[in-house]
Amino acid sequence: MSQRRAVIAGTGSALPRTRVSNEELARRVDTSDAWITERTGIKFRHIAEPDETTATLAAEACRKALEAADMDAGDIDLIVLATATPDNTFPASATKVQDLLGISGCAAFDVAAVCSGFLYALSVAESMIRAHSANKALVIGSETFSRILDWEDRGTCVLFGDGAGAVVLKAEEGTRGVLATRLHAAGRHGEMLYVDGGPSTTGTVGKLRMKGREVFRHAVVNLAEVMHETLAAAGVAAEDVDWVVPHQANARIIDATVRKLGLPPEKVVMTVDRHANTSAASVPLALDVAVRDGRIGRGDLIVLEAMGGGFTWGAAVVRF
Ligand code: COA
Predict the structure, then answer these.
(1) pLDDT of 64-97, one tens digit each?
(2) pTM of this prediction?
(3) Is 234 in the pocket of ligand 1 (CB under 6 A)?
(4) Are 7 and 127 in the same domain?
(5) Mutate to test the pocket of ligand 1, among 214, 250, 282, 312 (most ligand atoms within 8 A of CB)
């Protein structure tokens, strides 16, 4: 049925200049390439230099997404940026991105849902487009998690990386676009994955803390459920899916989740080996990789999913 939808008109991404391998990390942290590879599938992560921030990486990803969409920054009337590592406590990093893009006046705000932030941001932006509150939106996931890692904690610091991904959403009548999104949260699990500081509690930024095993267990169950729920809401079957673009936290979580849905591993975009877990950036980063290398093309049915601190989790079904 033809109706107003938010179509992904372009994708873009940005990575910090410095790439760090497991072997390099093992010189600074009590770990090994074998341990990290076997438990997570991670081989490399990019780490931001002081001049690279959440907002600068986001702006670079946006410029590439705008170019891919054949649009100017001036066409944009909404910017939604998902991040748990903003440049400042306020203003929202989205406003900094707006300024870096040389535009002014359009709505710009951040969304905080940690690793599922991009799904939350996408859902908000596409709802605003369907409600005629916006016509052309930048939806971004951008993070510099290296700044909130405890480099003495080998159980967490090896897992994360920095980066940004962005999509341009455009209002269009038709059958393409975001078909359904579903979002969830369970605040009672807050202590499983959190940062032990904040403006209103300690007055400090804090460091990431995680109970890895618990997160793993919840992730597989929640992600499989929300993917089922979102496919049903979109009125499509799992076998109709061309590509799954999952949150890139851990190859074992991804494998277990898609197996629960009965989807073959060939339909899964996997970038965790080269980016590690870039939190809110991971889904749009992986999407951009698969679009640019030609795997994902116009008309493909794709599923995006993520789960993160909160817990928060969500999925989206998109006719690309
Ligand atoms: N290098 C080497 N050894 C390490 C290590 C590292 N980087 N980190 C932990 N270990 C050790 C532990 O000290 C422990 O040793 P011990 O048995 O002698 O005490 C052993 O490895 C097992 O630790 P454990 O934490 O139980 O490992 P695990 O099998 O649960 O794997 C994770 C750890 C983090 C890889 C796994 O729990 C996981 O992937 N969880 C999900 C995390 C995630 O994706 N979070 C983000 C979601 S958004």
Answers:
(1) 999 999 999 999 999 999 999 999 999 999 999 9
(2) 0.97
(3) no
(4) yes
(5) 250
